[in-house]
């Protein structure tokens, strides 16, 4: 055996239910959730520590619900951007250094407007927030290590793996010592950004590539002189003297808004532009774009990345599952990459736990791919469309021609403030173009209203909900496959709670109407006979285990007082019955049989 210097244990062969390869957002979320589900796992990452890049930063409501399940939400909120400093996004003509630089072209509410958008407040008890990955992942790692001491191992790489009918045998190497050990697991989670596991299994990334080249610069600088508008999180800077788009985002860590100590600056280049590969030229471009000349700037790191939108050709291969960046890669527009990764994990972990605990058979795991593929494809498509829409704004401004001179560029954008009636149509078109970017910043139905269609969802014969706008407008529903609607309830002890918080991570929840006692009895009987993990409650305005004082649940529940719904552990509706049933035990038993892919005795 090889003595492990950093973790205080000896490296030896290990047998464990789940091996997680990758220590980013997906891998760390998987480690935390599996621990909460009492499923032992080992996480290995070839990297020495968590991400050193700011990368993803927006965490939407659904993701914060998941991180609350993992026990990390409150620590994240405590360090994240205050809601007042992320209520809006705005578009500017330049930043500094020119007479008209810094003038605001337009502004949009973002991610719920800091509490101003009632639709967002009604969607979830958790608020969206913002925390760069360099601050987020250490929090997640601490929680993962506390939940599974010694089983989160950075500096360890996957050397090889082989699958068979019963499990996966992997060889892990500690990079510092070179010592190796074998891990025998029931399942392998590929959270490695597609570096190793997917390619070895023949998984390809399919979709749109070569959209553009981007350079991101993580820097420390005092930009408070020019970065006005403390409510603005992301500044989209159209640079007339360069005819290009730049983006500036505060990174905290102790102050936000204009006083942020750190920032990330993004600049787009034509695909394969050699200038993007030269650090000195990129810094010069940054200074020219911002108009800050020799203003003091400390650059921490420059990163180069390709603008793409791709999805893995397979999400399950035998006992291996593909998650996070290994399963899909997005442009950063809309903040859907990391959030999609946590949702992949949330979808899979309860299913793996149910199979390992004997509550379900392997067929349940086949539902991971169809459910997540449809959702991540929508997210990738929205991210690409949002990115391209920014360039449409540039075309509307007349700044899409790289051959414009500085004077020509500023002359075109100055039409916004000319006061001339001849420019009224131009101003209207620009306002309309900017308003259309709500596809990125008010995409509540994309973020929260996504639905699942698989064998783990029992159709009830009702037609799909028709949204007035499939991107922007989320309408809560209990139709099977939908996320459980949020409603504030009054508990017996007088403390309010959300319907969301009634669902325990490893258990189903049956919610019946106030006259739905037969469904409660059926759930109790089936659980006792079959060992099913299910809780059951009645909710009504005047009667029930929980009361609905605002009639919010009554408004959205979609079934009568004698009906019921069955909620999966990931808070998606698995089954619905609109009213009374002649045989509630048989109806509910058949639903469990389909979802769990097992026999259920009546």
How would you summarize this macromolecular structure in one to three sentences?
The chain has 602 residues and is α/β, with parallel strands linked by helices.
Key traits:
602 residues, alpha/beta, eight-stranded mixed β-sheet, 16 helices, 29% helix, globular
Q: Could you describe the 3D structure shown?
A:
- This protein has 602 residues and is α/β, with parallel strands linked by helices.
- It is 29% helix and 26% strand.
- It contains 16 helices and 27 strands.
- The strands form 6 sheets. Strands 3, 4, 9, 10, 11, 12, 18 and 19 form an 8-stranded mixed beta sheet that branches. Strands 7-6-14-15-16-13-17-20 form an 8-stranded mixed beta sheet, sandwiched between helices. It has a 5-stranded mixed beta sheet with strand order 25-24-23-26-27, covered by helices on one side.
- Helix 1 runs parallel beside helix 8, helix 8 packs antiparallel against helix 9 and helix 9 runs antiparallel to helix 11.
- The longest helix is centred in the middle third of the chain and has 30 residues, at 368-397.
- The protein is globular, with a radius of gyration of 26 Å.
- The chain starts with a strand and ends in a 6-residue tail after the last helix.
């Amino acid at each position: 055996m090889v003595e492990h210097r950093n973790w205080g244990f000896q490296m030896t062969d290990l047998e464990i239910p789940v091996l997680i390869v990758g220590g980013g957002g997906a891998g760390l979320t998987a480690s935390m959730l599996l621990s909460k589900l009492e499923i032992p796992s080992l996480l290995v990452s070839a990297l020495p520590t968590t991400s050193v890049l700011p990368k993803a930063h927006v965490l939407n409501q659904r993701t914060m619900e998941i991180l609350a399940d993992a026990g990390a939400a409150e620590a994240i909120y405590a360090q994240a951007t205050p809601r007042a400093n992320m209520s809006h996004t705005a578009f500017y003509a330049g930043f500094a250094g020119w007479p008209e630089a810094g003038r605001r072209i337009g502004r949009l509410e973002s991610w719920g407007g800091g509490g101003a958008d009632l639709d967002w407040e009604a969607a979830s008890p958790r608020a969206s927030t913002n925390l760069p990955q360099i601050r987020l992942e250490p929090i997640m790692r601490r929680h993962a290590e506390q939940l599974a001491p010694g089983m989160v191992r950075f500096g360890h790489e996957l050397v090889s793996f082989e699958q068979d009918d019963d499990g996966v045998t992997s060889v892990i190497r500690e990079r510092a010592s070179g010592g190796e050990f074998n891990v025998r697991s029931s399942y392998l989670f590929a959270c490695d950004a597609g570096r190793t596991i997917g390619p070895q299994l023949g998984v390809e990334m399919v979709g749109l590539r070569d959209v553009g080249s981007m350079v991101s610069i993580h820097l420390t600088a005092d930009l408070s002189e020019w970065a006005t508008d403390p409510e603005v999180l992301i500044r989209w800077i159209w640079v007339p003297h360069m005819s290009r788009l730049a983006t500036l985002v505060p990174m905290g860590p102790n102050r936000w808004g204009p006083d942020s100590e750190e920032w990330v600056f993004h600049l787009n280049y034509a695909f394969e532009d050699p200038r993007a590969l030269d650090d000195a030229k990129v810094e010069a471009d940054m200074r020219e774009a911002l108009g800050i000349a020799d203003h003091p700037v400390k650059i921490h790191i420059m990163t180069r990345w390709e603008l793409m939108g791709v999805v893995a050709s397979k999400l399950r291969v035998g006992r291996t599952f593909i998650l996070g960046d290994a399963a899909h890669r997005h442009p950063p527009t809309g903040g859907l990459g990391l959030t999609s990764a946590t949702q992949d994990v949330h979808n899979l972990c309860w299913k793996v736990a149910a199979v390992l605990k004997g509550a379900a058979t392997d067929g349940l795991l086949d539902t991971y791919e169809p459910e997540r593929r449809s959702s991540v494809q929508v997210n990738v498509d929205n991210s690409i469309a949002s990115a391209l829409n920014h360039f449409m704004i540039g075309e509307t401004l007349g700044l899409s021609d790289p051959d414009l001179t500085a004077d020509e560029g500023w002359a075109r954008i100055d039409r916004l403030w000319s006061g001339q009636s001849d420019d009224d149509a131009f101003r209207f078109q620009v306002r309309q173009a900017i308003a259309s970017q709500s596809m990125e910043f008010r995409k509540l139905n994309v973020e929260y209203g996504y639905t699942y269609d698989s064998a783990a969802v029992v159709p009830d014969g009702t037609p799909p909900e028709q949204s007035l706008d499939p991107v922007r407008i989320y309408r809560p529903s209990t139709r099977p496959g939908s996320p459980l609607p949020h409603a504030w309830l009054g508990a017996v002890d007088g403390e309010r709670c959300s319907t969301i918080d009634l669902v325990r991570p490893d258990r189903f929840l049956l919610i019946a109407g106030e006259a739905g006692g037969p469904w409660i009895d059926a759930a109790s009987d089936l659980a006792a006979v079959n060992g099913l993990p299910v809780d059951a409650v009645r909710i009504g305005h005047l009667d029930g285990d929980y009361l609905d004082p605002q009639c919010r649940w009554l408004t959205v529940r979609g079934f009568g007082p004698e009906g019921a719904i069955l909620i999966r552990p990931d808070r998606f509706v698995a089954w619905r019955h609109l009213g009374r049933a002649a045989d509630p035990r048989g109806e509910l038993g058949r639903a469990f049989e389909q979802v769990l892919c097992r026999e259920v005795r009546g």
